[in-house]
Structures are given as structure tokens and as C-alpha cells.
Amino acid sequence: MSAAGVISQAFEPFLAESGPNDKRNAIVIYRHPSFEGQRVRGRLRELKKRLAHVKALASAQVPVQEKLLKDYKREVGKQGPGKQEMFSAPIGANTLPVATVEVTRKTLQALAAQPNVVAVLPDQRIHLIRPKEVDYSKLAKQEITNGLTWGLRELEIPKMWETTKGAGINVAVLDTGVYGDHPALKGRVKDFVIVDPLGRRITTGATFDAAQHGTHVCGTVAGGKTSEGVSIGVAPEATLLVAGVLVGDATLRTLVEGISWAVEKGADILSMSLGFTYYEPLFAELFQVLIDTYDILPVVAIGNENHGNTSSPGNSPNSLAVGAVERMPGGKAEVAFFSSGASLVFPGAGAEALVTKPDVVAPGVQVYSSIPPEKRPDGVFEYTYMDGTSMATPHVAGVAALLTAAKPDAPVTDIIKVMKETAKHPGGASSRPDNRWGYGLIQPIEALKALA
């Protein structure tokens, strides 16, 4: 691949106001032979072996990374008078083939030209895909009567629980953090870290949520029951690994550090309700490492910017991107007006690279879940309703946990395939995929049957 082909097009706006020698941070993704053709299988029974494999790969790629960065600095030194020292450092414990590197307009090409470089991305800002609405209404009578939220009922989750509740599966939630002391999350948060804007991992004696969002997402993935006895979590026996990557001025480096941490902790599934400032198709290279090498499923919200729009990294071709449906009068489910979706051709890749997103949809309106205690004029609230593709995403991550627990030897590619192929589209199979429904509303029971 040419140097130009590995440089993200997001550098153009990212460097728009930079001088020729102004330093900016970049993320470099590189290739290492040890990653070729190796995929971890048997996730549920082989966790210790898998983590040992993660460490072995990390150790093997250290010399590759060191050589790449050394050669880059040498090339920078050849650029004559006025040369600058370029800071570089690994991200995480070398679990992923990524590093953070300083670049200028002049040195960017030199970095991209190094052997084994797959992609160079600007360390752009990332942001939370915020809920479209937060509603502190009391729990609906119908949900109290049913003993579960409408989303769990719509997806027939109790039938899935006859087979599994997700025990042994690690779901990493990369979000605003979590209030782990919430009664609905008691004992479910296995590990917790905050990644600050400089990419540093901060461990604390207590979990916390910088907003409400992360706790709400965690409740939908793996929460227990409310005081009224209403189940809120899709996979209530799954384990949560929570990285607060949306604290302060978060950037791509913050996110990649959180992903690396999740891999090191044994994540099976990543749940991400976040987006980038600039469109970034090259992030797909990192997702491919997660899928091909570690058999980890990235589940990503597609965004709340309405039809005709999508958010990166949800619009990466290899993410499992999620849109939102709402319950209409009479019980029918329809795609929510705010749910993003579009068909796009990746720049420079030709018409064959047409990508249609989202991939699937799930309940994302009036989703009742946990939040940190919120004091309001009419009382203290520990649960609330929220709307957004951020609320649909943990439904899909939770279903993926149930499927993985039920069929631990099924590779992630099979999990993705059956969730898409068994999804229900109102226009029938001939209408799939489109950029509103994707392949359709997920059907967990049918997906489980397809894995048999």
C-alpha cells in the first residue's frame, strides 16, 4: 500500500491550521507477522490460555514497534536543518499493534512510508453519543406487570435465559464510567479504570461515573432487577469491564488505551457509544485486529444525527453498528426518527467498497436502566428512561454475550453473521440491508438456533 493510502483523510481538517513544523499527535497502526492467521477460540473455557496468548503476542511485537519508531526518527533526522525530535510511545502494554507518535506536515509521509505501517490516524477528539432524551418518569405499569423492560420483552430475552444468562462472558463498556455500587449492578463490575486525556490509566478504590451514561449502558448489558422486581439487563450473569474513556477532553489515544486495557483484561465484547470529530474509515484496521487476532466483537452505536448521517467508528465496515427502534402505539416497532443511517463509499476504494449502516437495530427509545443516584426536586432517582442509539447498543452487546456463552466455540464472525442474517426486516429479506433498518431488528432466539 502506498504511503498516501495509509494516511487518514482526517488529517486534512486536523492539520488545517497547523504550520509545516507544528507537532501534532498521531496514532500509527502497524502489521506484525505474529498476528497473521492467529485467532483465539474457545473463549469461555480457555480464558487463562487466551490471556497468556495476549501477553505472548505483545512481547513478540515489541521489537517490531521499536524498529518502526527508530527508523521513523532516523528519517526525520535526514530532513536537514531545523529537524525536530519526535515523541513516540507504545499504547497500553503492546497488546495492540499501535503507538502514539508526533508528526508534522513534513514528517507525516516519512512515518507512513515505514514498512509494516497499516494506517496513520490523527489523534482527534472523541465524544459521547449523547441520549436524545432523559425522562425521569415513573416505571411504566406494563413493565412492572411484565417484570421486565419493553426492550427485553421485545427481544424475547426470558426465552434466551432458559439456555444462558451470559455467565463467564466479559463485556467491556468504554464510556463515561460506572457507578458500580448501584444495587442493580452489585457484583457485576469485575474491573474498572479511568483513562485520562493524556492516555494514562488511573485505577481507583471505588468506581464512579463522570455522567449517567455509562451506568445506564451497564444496566442494560448486565443489570439485575429494580426494587419493583423489573429486570433491566439482557445478560445479567455477564461480567462488566468498564473503562472511563470519555472523561475530560478525550481523544482517539484515550479510546485506544481503553481498548488495549479491555483486551488485556480478557474482554469478549466491546460496547461503544461514542464518535469521532472527523470521519475515520481507517479505524477499521484496528477493529480487524480485534476480530481476527483476539476474536473480540466491537459493537458500536451508529449515532443520533438522523437519516443520512453516520458516526465513526460505527460506520467502519467491520463494526457491528446499531440503530434504534421505538415502540409505537399497538406494539409495533419502528426505527426512531433520530437514528442515524447512510450508505457510503469509502474514499479512494471504488464502488465495490459501498457500506450500508447500521447493521442491525434494537430497542433504543424509552429504555429504563440504572443511573448514579440523582437528587431532583421530586426525589432521588436511581433509574431513568433514556432514548438513543447508545441505548440500543447495549441490548446488542448483551445479546452477543448470551450467544457467546451458549456457543463458546463459535467465532465472532459467526456471531455477527447470525445476528444479521436472522434479523427481522419489515420489507423482507430482499430489502436487506438498507440504511434505516440495516438487516433488521435482532432476533436472539433465531440467532441462537442458527448457531446450533
Question: How is the secondary structure organized here?
Answer:
Blueprint: H1 3-6, H2 11-14, E1 24-30, H3 47-77, E2 88-90, E3 98-103, H4 108-112, E4 117-122, E5 126-128, E6 133-135, H5 141-146, H6 150-154, H7 157-161, E7 170-175, E8 189-195, E9 201-202, H8 213-222, E10 239-244, H9 252-264, E11 269-272, E12 274-276, H10 284-294, E13 297-301, E14 320-327, E15 333-335, E16 342-345, E17 354-357, E18 360-363, E19 367-376, E20 379-387, H11 389-406, H12 412-421, H13 444-451
Parallel strand pairs: 7-10, 7-11, 8-10, 11-13, 13-14, 14-18
Antiparallel strand pairs: 1-3, 1-4, 2-3, 5-12, 6-20, 8-9, 14-15, 16-17, 19-20
Helix pairs in contact: 8-11, 12-13
What can you see in these coordinates?
The chain has 452 residues and is of the alpha/beta class. The protein is built from 13 helices and 20 strands. Strands 7, 8, 9, 10, 11, 13, 14, 15 and 18 form a nine-stranded mixed beta sheet that branches. It has a four-stranded antiparallel beta sheet with strand order 2-3-1-4, with helices on both faces. It has a three-stranded antiparallel beta sheet with strand order 6-20-19. Strand 8 and strand 9 form a beta hairpin. Helix 8 (213-222) packs parallel to helix 11 (389-406) and helix 12 packs across helix 13. The longest helix has 31 residues, at 47-77. The chain is globular, with a radius of gyration of 22 Å. The chain starts with a helix and ends with a helix. The mean pLDDT is 90.
What structural keywords apply?
452 residues, alpha/beta, Alpha-Beta Plaits, Rossmann fold, 2 domains, 20 strands, 29% helix
